[in-house]
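Thread title: Can someone regenerate the structure for this chain?

I was given the following input by a collaborator and told the matching structure tokens would be attached. They weren't. Posting the sequence so someone can regenerate them.
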Amino acid sequence: MNIGKNLLWNELKPAVLSVRKTEKSNTFAVGLTQNQVLAKHKTATPTLLTVLQGEILFRINGESIRLCTLDAFEIPVNQEHEVIGVEKENIFILFQEK
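Best answer:
Regenerated them for you:
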């Protein structure tokens, strides 16, 4: 599967693509255009974010963390955060353990 070709880009909301789902994990990709926001939310399960393309700002606890292509970040459980696209097209993958 080519993630970039399968993401359905949308100027109004983040593009989300399920990559793999099993009983023990869920992997999905998110595409953000420039300045597009994945609204504030929390995750109840351990999640690893890895940037595949572009650059994002990960905002959590009043801090902005800049993540670039191939950077990885472990998202803390039950902490509100949001993600903002920096480049024209930004793709990151999320791996969640169940």
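The longest strand covers residues 25-33.
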